[in-house]
């Protein structure tokens, strides 16, 4: 299916997408919509249409499966994203990565800033860059500000893996892909990840592939 006409009003774009039954198609890297800063959400969708769009994003995230989807990833350049992570991981991974369950959240007009100087580096991937993962050093803790889908203000601190998810999805809304922040020497196919780098931390990959992790 063709992407929505980006020159059409956002409500028309979203209605076109929602005519699809099932999950929405994910836009792949190389499409300009992933590189355009999004437009601040300011009521371009009426409440009922916004609720339907949010539910479609949630369905798409679950079907992928992923832990977040931003509106540009389905071709809509609005500052909206959804996140959710049941975190079905072993205890060792939970402790090392701080990967704890993150309930379903809608992020509207989000922005973040790092809290403190500590950074954490782990492999991450993206639904818009299928088949690959790379190590990204990100803020270990961030302060997120913005709104929820009901227009209520959000001002919250995230740490561990939820902080990584928040940064990844908010970056999408600024036209930034995770590869822009990645250590490119770490870039690995999913097959290579399964064969070589299934460990909870990327230390082995850093030594073998020749890149440096933050201290």
UniProtKB/TrEMBL annotation:
Its EC number is 3.5.1.88. Binds 1 Fe(2+) ion. Its cofactor is Fe(2+). It comes from the Bacteria. The active site is at 169. Fe cation binds at residues 126, 168, 172. The keyword Hydrolase applies. Keywords: Hydrolase, Iron, Metal-binding, Protein biosynthesis. It catalyses: N-terminal N-formyl-L-methionyl-[peptide] + H2O = N-terminal L-methionyl-[peptide] + formate. InterPro entries: Peptide_deformylase (IPR023635). HAMAP family: Pep_deformylase. Removes the formyl group from the N-terminal Met of newly synthesized proteins. Requires at least a dipeptide for an efficient rate of reaction. N-terminal L-methionine is a prerequisite for activity but the enzyme has broad specificity at other positions. Belongs to the polypeptide deformylase family. This is Peptide deformylase.
